[in-house]
Specification:
about 150 residues; Immunoglobulin-like; six-stranded mixed beta sheet; 3 helices; elongated; three-stranded antiparallel beta sheet
Amino acid sequence: MTDHRRAFIKKSVALSAYAIIAPGGLLASAESKATERSDSLSTNNLQQTLKRLFKDQDIIASDQIDIQLPKIAVNGAAVPITITSTLKNIESIAILIEKNPTPLAAKFELSPDLDPFVSTRLKITESSVVMVIVESSEGFYSAREKVIVTLGGC
């Protein structure tokens, strides 16, 4: 009788584990996951991110945004960037990297009382353009810098 009870418990545990794992997709093949991931990455390009974040707002290129970024980054895992601006009433600063799987690297919401200064480190997968978009009370302004990455960050 104990053998039947043990067999029942083993089968119940195995069936319960399968019922929990199967809907989560943990039993899917690696190929199907790779296809699913490449499809989602291909839809996350810079233009779609810009449209999602800023709707159909006009973004004007501005020379009042200063981007301090190395021209050549030896390691893309930690590329330093510093952004300053002489624009007035800045509400937010967004940093986008053109060739990253997810272009939006960071977005900073700023108080009007603060100086428009942001400094951080970025993870950049390959050589690409880094775009900074500043939102002020007058509109949206952008600046771009190209960085060459010799060793990928992702």
